[in-house]
Design brief:
Number of strands: 17
Radius of gyration: 27 Å
Structural class: alpha/beta
Largest sheet: 8 strands, mixed
Helix content: 25-40%
Number of helices: 14
Low-confidence stretches: 271-285, 455-464
Strand order of the largest sheet: 3-4-5-2-6-7-1-8
CATH architecture of the largest domain: 2-Layer Sandwich
């Protein structure tokens, strides 16, 4: 049984190398980087069908693990079952125990590589696969999965896209590259979006759109499509990105007829609010409540960038003012002064009460509570970068205000660090101040996910 014709040349190259190691009991470990949606899962499924067929009468386990059982492991099982049906095995394969697929005497065993999963005791006889290996713990792999093939000298394949230089995939990749230099046997396979696009014009169109939407320097584009790992952290915004944010429109203090406005609200921690107000210049680490008002320009949207341009038109900034004292002022500003169509408010912890109050006053269709977590804050950071890189986010002109100075101070001091599971932490060092304007800005970009019911807003004269 030959490799199916459905595989593209780069997929077939990987499949042949793995198959050669399996059939000749070479026990090689391969690392495979393929651009996001470039077909690594299809490659894996086709290879599994072939190996289960070859071992149908011999027997043995083919083991595949993924970072999570649901949905990743389940999706892998489903794909294998579909490919078995495609080649005429619909009446031959048998599901077992909810995580295995048997074909004759051979089994595909699908496991979770989550830190809490119990996988000890399994043996890999045919092949050991690690899907999305950049998200699998090195310790979990080394202690629990790699030993599964020790007694059988099993061939191992780790698939994924790059992230930073601390992941399991990157570690195996560097080891493989060194081994290749020594013996000339290819163990690392890398196919970025340009290689995949050679065989798929639709993919080319899609990724070029993502490059325009996210910006080529965006961490997700660099890692998921260009397959270039992130090296540590550092400044969140480059001088070039900060320059991109500078608009040519003046600051406004009230709404303009016919425009659509949204707002992002970062709330001060309640623990600091009982004290007397003080300027940030005196206590630079002091937590504040910041409201950022944005005007949406839908004429900027196109078939690639479907989101509107966001012009920052106003800031409100309170330090040391209790939430309860802010309620009437917030309602007046958001409802009467600006008529905001969507307001995203920090509803983490004590912010839940403010979000609830605003929802009642402005309507649940207007107010969207946002709960900060490691994952949600990371998503905000990536979306903020995409808005800046694509030229969608513009700051008002210099007006000599404290708000203007503080905004740019935070943009310059903002840092980012990258963590496992493709997440990012966005912050300002406590010794350098706070991140209230930064967080409010990110919430504003979230609020800009707004679809007007009527005609699109027109661009104001004098806009960017």
């Amino acid at each position: 049984m030959a490799i199916t014709q459905k595989l593209r040349p780069y997929q077939a190259e990987v499949a042949r190398a793995i198959l050669n190691s399996v059939l000749n009991r070479r026990g090689l470990t391969f690392s495979v980087e393929i651009s996001r949606q470039g077909g690594k899962n299809e490659l894996s499924a086709q290879l599994e069908v072939l190996l289960l067929t070859l071992f149908i009468g011999i027997g043995g386990n083919l083991i595949k693990c993924s970072p999570t059982f649901k949905p990743q492991t389940l999706i892998s099982m489903m794909r294998l079952k579909e490919r078995l049906n495609d080649v005429g095995y619909a009446d031959l394969w048998v599901p077992e125990l909810g995580y295995m697929v048997r074909l004759g005497k051979a089994r595909g065993v699908f496991l979770s590589a989550d830190e809490q999963s119990n996988v000890v005791g399994q043996t890999a006889h045919i092949l050991l696969e690690v899907d999305e290996s950049q998200d699998v713990s090195r310790e979990k792999y080394t202690k629990e999965f790699k030993p599964m093939g020790a007694a059988t000298n099993v061939t191992t394949a780790l698939y994924g896209t790059t992230w930073d230089d601390s992941t399991l995939l990157e570690e195996v990749k560097q080891t493989n590259l060194e081994l290749e230099r020594r013996d000339g046997i290819k163990r690392h396979f890398r196919y970025d979006w340009q290689e995949v696009a050679k065989y798929n014009p639709d993919y080319l169109h899609y990724v070029e759109g993502e490059r325009e939407r996210l910006g080529e320097s965006h961490p997700l584009f660099q890692t998921q499509y260009a397959l270039k790992p992130i090296h540590g952290g550092g400044g969140f915004l480059s001088p070039q990105q900060r320059a991109q944010m500078q608009g040519s429109h003046p600051r406004c203090h009230q709404r303009q007829e016919g425009q659509i406005y949204v707002a992002g609200i970062d709330l001060a921690g309640e623990a600091e609010e009982g004290e007397d107000a003080a300027l940030r210049a005196i206590r630079p680490g002091r937590d504040s409540t910041v409201v950022t008002i944005g005007e949406l320009d839908f004429s900027f949207s196109n078939e690639v960038i479907r989101e509107p341009r966001i012009r920052i038109v106003e800031h409100y900034w309170w330090t040391g003012k209790p939430h309860t004292s802010l309620y009437p002022q917030l309602v007046d500003i958001l409802k009467n002064l600006w008529g905001c169509r969507r307001v995203v408010v920090d509803a983490t912890g004590v912010g839940e009460g403010v979000a609830s109050f605003l929802s009642k006053a402005l309507g649940r269709s207007v107010v969207a509570p946002f709960h900060f977590s490691q994952q949600s804050k990371s998503r905000l950071g990536f979306e903020l970068l995409a808005a800046i890189n694509s030229g969608r986010l513009k700051m008002y002109l210099q007006d000599g205000s404290q708000e203007y100075r503080e905004f740019w101070n935070e943009m310059e001091r903002a840092k980012s660090t990258f963590r496992a599971n493709q997440t990012m932490n966005l912050f300002v060092e406590a010794s350098q101040g706070h991140d209230d304007f930064l967080s409010s800005l990110a919430l504003l970009v979230e609020a800009a996910h707004y679809a007007p019911r009527s005609a699109k807003g027109r661009a104001r004269d004098g806009g960017v």
